[in-house]
Amino acid sequence: MNPVKIGFLGFGTVGQGAAVVLARNAVEINRRAGRDIIVKSAAVRDISRERAPELASVALTTNHDDIVNDPEIDVVIEVMGGDEPARSLLLKAIANGKHVVTANKALIAVHGNEIFEAARKHGVSVAFEAAVAGGIPVIKSIREGLAGNKIQWLAGIINGTSNYILTEMRDKGRDFPEVLDEAQALGYAEADPTFDVEGIDAAHKLTILASIAFGVPLKFDAVYTEGISHITQEDTVYAEELGYRIKHVGLAIDTGNGIELRVHPALLPERRLIANVDGVMNAVLVQADAVGPTLYYGAGAGAEPTGSSVVADILDVVRVASADVHNRVPVLAFQHDSINESRTVPSSEFQTSYYLRILAEDVPGVMADISRILADQNINIEAIIQKGPASGSSKLPIVLLTKQIVEGAMDAAIAQLEQLKSVEGAVVRIRVESLG
After folding, report:
1. Residue 71: which pLDDT band, with cuts at 50, 70 and 90?
2. CA proximity to 434, closest of 398, 404, 414, 413
3. What burial class does residue 411 get, using C-beta atoms within 10 Å of its C-beta: 0-12 exposed, 13-18 middle, 19+ buried?
4. Same domain, 129 and 278
5. Which of 81, 84, 182, 306 is surrounded by the most beta carbons within 10 Å?
């Protein structure tokens, strides 16, 4: 059979990683695909930049249209990132009858519905395994391996930067600003770390996972998103004392009354495998009715781990290129006409337990006031840690672990707690997830 020719939009870390894997494993890939896969060209910012010797035969251009309009190119690989011009270029490639592979989670989460509809109209495939959890084949696992199951919920540590920061804070007793500076120096965090530490990157990925798990449209704007910048080293210590570890997690839950989509710090029981995923590693835990819990773990970023997922997508596209559109695996796991608009549960209806840290004056009656406010909202206390004031201070930290309660009640209680004259500053709230 004729070789399949591919072109890259962007040829940085991930793009070159994928191209190197294709070159190094060409014989094995041919055996799997039944045809040669050749990297014909790549659109780059700087042609003069030094690249791996395996990529010497790749023609370079600074014009992205040279890739999407080339009649010889069968598959376009988008690894440039961002919304535009990536969105317009992919739509143009699709209109030209080219299959598309992308590692761009933000593009899929925000514009995926439009892109998938265009691909369906033109009879081409869109693959995006590398958009979530780097080298972990979690999308294929949910979409195909768990196709006989009803997914009940999934929980993911899907941002390596925030996981690295929380691990260092816990293991080495360091503060958030210090570890963030180090993460930036090591290249784990961008110069502007907002997408990572405020949960936006994880929300993009959760949007994609939830759509595949539950057969709903991509709903990035519906994801409740909270970052980790308010977590202190003291919180990690208190969590350990209570038998938990703090992780930044994405949760998608089919409640039976709608879908919960949320990204936030959470206390996870330290005995859970996912609570022991440390450093820059990623993991996704999926609970399904037939198989039960399954855990997917691995590198969430990096040239060759992410490149591995890109290459797997290329292989999938090559294998199904000649198949009738209706006989291909649906891009969002469910047939197009069965995607449904399930209700998204608002944050006020979340039901979970809570960790609260309150800084209060060391005066008589403060615990009585706190207990009264919680009791008025029917919030039961599971555990208390009360330390004495630090040397030279009249303030004492009070740490509470509550039983499960609806979030609206907790919102009301926290608002009242923060109005107490004896309470200083904001009450720190972290959700507790048993993942049982």
Report:
1. very high
2. 404
3. middle
4. no
5. 306
First to last CA, the chain: 50
* 345 located within any domain: no
Tell the burial category of 84 from Cβ atoms under 10 Å away from its Cβ (0-12, 13-18, 19+): exposed
Crossing angle of helices 105-122 and 86-95, in 10° steps, is 20
121 part of the active site: no
DSSP for 360-413, please give it.
EES-TTHHHHHHHHHHHTTPPEEEEEEPPPPTT-SEEEEEEEEPPEEHHHHHHH
Residues 268, 273: Cα–Cα separation, whole Å: 10
Considering the domain architecture, whether residues 288 and 158 belong to the same structural domain is answered as yes
Q: Is 371 exposed, middle or buried (0-12, 13-18, 19+ CB in 10 A)?
A: middle
The 3-state DSSP class for residue 220 equals helix
Residues 417 and 286 grouped into a single domain: no
Residue showing tokens 């038998």:
243
pLDDT for res 395 = 85
pLDDT in tens, 4-58: 999 999 998 899 999 999 999 999 999 998 889 999 999 999 898 888 888 889 9
In angstroms, the Cα distances linking 318 to 28, 31, 127, 313 are 15, 12, 11, 9
Same domain, 152 and 294: yes
- Residue 13, beta-bridge partner list: none
Proportion of the chain above pLDDT 70, given as a percent:
96
Same domain, 149 and 286: yes
The pTM (predicted TM-score) of the whole model is 0.93
Measured in residues, the chain has a length of 436
The residue from 92, 98, 205, 247 that is catalytic is: 205
Residue 77's nearest CA partner among 19, 1, 140 is 19
Mean pLDDT of the chain: 92
Residues 255 and 326 in one domain: no
Q: What is the DSSP letter of 193?
A: -
Q: Are 119 and 96 in contact (CB under 8 A)?
A: no
Residue 8 is assigned to a structural domain of this protein: yes
Name the helix (H) or strand (E) containing 285. Answer: strand 281-288
Q: Please give the biggest Cα pair distance in the chain.
A: 83
Give dist(CA 66, CA 357) in Å, integer: 57
β-pair partners for 400: 356, 384
Tens digit of pLDDT for each residue in 322-368? 556 666 677 765 666 677 788 899 999 999 999 999 999 888 889 99
Question: In this structure, is residue 344 part of a structural domain?
Answer: no
The verdict on whether omega for the bond into residue 85 sits within 30 degrees of 0, i.e. cis, is yes
Residue 269 is encoded by which pair of tokens? 């029981």
Please compute, for residue 285, the number of CA atoms within 13 A of its CA located in the half-sphere on the CB side.
Answer: 19
